[in-house]
Amino acid sequence: MEVEKMNSNSLQSSKGETCIICDIEKMAGIHLYTSFICVDCEKKMTSTQTSDPKYQYYLEKLRRVKNPPLYS
């Protein structure tokens, strides 16, 4: 039986998780229910005014948290 040795290089190659807002894999962020939001998107969302058109975009993306995908 062959066993692969894990070292720090193989651990650093992990890409992280996919953000539900920007759909890009990032290493740092927060978990909201079962979803991941990267630090960049979190900062953008918290600084967006309700009158800004992007506010509606963020609301639509956050609705994905309420209805997580079903896997069969």
Please describe the structure with a list of short key phrases separated by commas or semicolons.
disordered N terminus; globular; 3 helices; Sigma-G_inhibitor_Gin; 17% strand; single chain; two-stranded antiparallel ribbon; two-stranded antiparallel sheet; alpha+beta; 72 residues; Sigma factor G inhibitor Gin
For the sheet with most strands, the description reads:
2 strands, antiparallel
The total of beta strands comes to 4
The general outline is globular
Distance between the ends: 34 Å
Structural class: alpha+beta
Strand order of the largest sheet: 1-2
Low-confidence segments, given as residue ranges, are: 1-13
Strand content: 15-25%
**What percent of the residues sit in helical stretches (DSSP H or I)?**
25-40%
Q: Please, what is the average pLDDT?
A: 81
Task: Write down the secondary-structure element order.
Answer: HEEEEHH
Supply the number of helical segments: 3
Q: Determine Rg (CA atoms, Å).
A: 17 Å
Describe the structure.
With 72 residues, the chain is an alpha+beta fold. 39% of the residues lie in helices and 17% in strands. It is built from 3 helices and 4 strands, in the order H-E-E-E-E-H-H. It has helices at residues 8-12, 39-47, 53-66, and strands at 17-18, 25-26, 29-32, 35-38. The strands form 2 sheets. Strands 1-2 form a two-stranded antiparallel sheet. The chain is globular.
Summarize the structure.
The chain is an alpha+beta fold and 72 residues long. The chain has 3 helices and 4 strands; from the N terminus they run H-E-E-E-E-H-H.
